[in-house]
What we know:
Layout: E1 2-3, H1 21-25, E2 29-37, H2 41-52, E3 57-61, E4 74-75, H3 77-85, H4 89-92, E5 96-98, E6 100-105, E7 108-113, E8 124-126, H5 129-142, E9 146-149, E10 151-159, E11 162-170, E12 175-186, H6 193-197, E13 208-217, E14 225-229, E15 242-248, E16 253-262
Parallel strand pairs: 2-3, 2-12, 3-9, 6-14
Antiparallel strand pairs: 1-12, 4-8, 5-8, 6-7, 10-11, 11-12, 13-16, 14-15, 15-16
Amino acid sequence: MRLYAEVTVNESLNTAERVSPDDVATLPTRETEVLVVGGGPAGAAMGYWLAEQGHEVAIVERKHFPREKTCGDGLTPRAVKQLDDMGLGERLKQFHRYEGLRATAHGKELELQWPTHPTYPRHGYVVRRRELDAMVAFNAEKSGAALLQGHEAMTPILDKGCVRGAVVNDLDEGRQMAIRADYVVVADGANSRFGRSLGTARTKAWPYGTAIRTYWVSPRHDEPWIESALDVQDRNGNSMPGYGWIFPVGDGTINVVLVCCRHSRSSKT
Ligand SMILES: Cc1cc2nc3c(=O)[nH]c(=O)nc-3n(C[C@H](O)[C@H](O)[C@H](O)COP(=O)(O)OP(=O)(O)OC[C@H]3O[C@@H](n4cnc5c(N)ncnc54)[C@H](O)[C@@H]3O)c2cc1C
């Protein structure tokens, strides 16, 4: 999540994606103190805390909740604490609670219980993102944030080098508007098209992972451990750069993910 207000944006970047002030002036306009782009857990949590502090905040989310998000669905003790701080602790108790990580590799198995900590609980939960993200987003709305679902931020509105809002498409109504704001929070996820148009970029020297995720029905759906496999092999038994995991969802299914890592997009490994 990145905060862009009062940050000077390099005007030469992605000029094709910029919209001219004249065009913006013709659009219907909504004003708010803070505009949050993206209603995932980061954007919705931001919206919640700002609204709780009495700020006027609008969250634009291009999808409608509940929506899917490819993820392992595992909440660590730190995430549990964050959700509890937002008043969602009781609601988490309906989901599958787990105690720690079982790490497996090369025939060895380690069961690592979450440590005792003065601030964080000693357990996590597995919650499908379809449910988690809706819960966090509607919680922000309940605390006073305007949650605009089916709204996609298309282009930043710039004023003297500062981001002061966005041109937003209302995807349900098929119309466009300008949302002007004193501050803009970019919480549009890993691909971050909106963020990229402001000049952010992935550091290509860092490793890059591609994941496949599915849910399987399993009798071991309510195990007290999330499990990671750190020795992924191809069909000939050769080690591959990557890892897999199996997270028990507690509803009759397990979340299974395979991640393949490589050093850069151009690498063949
Ligand atoms: C395979 C995989 C497994 C993972 N497993 C785990 C796990 O087990 N536990 C864990 O803690 N983390 C896990 N993660 C990481 C986790 O998914 C992310 O850290 C988390 O989703 C980030 O939340 P976010 O709110 O920043 O972004 P997102 O959850 O991606 O939300 C961004 C939101 O912005 C919206 N959006 C995007 N662009 C626009 C726009 N222009 N206008 C309006 N809306 C827009 C999107 O629709 C989306 O709802 C995993 C990630 C992957 C890929």
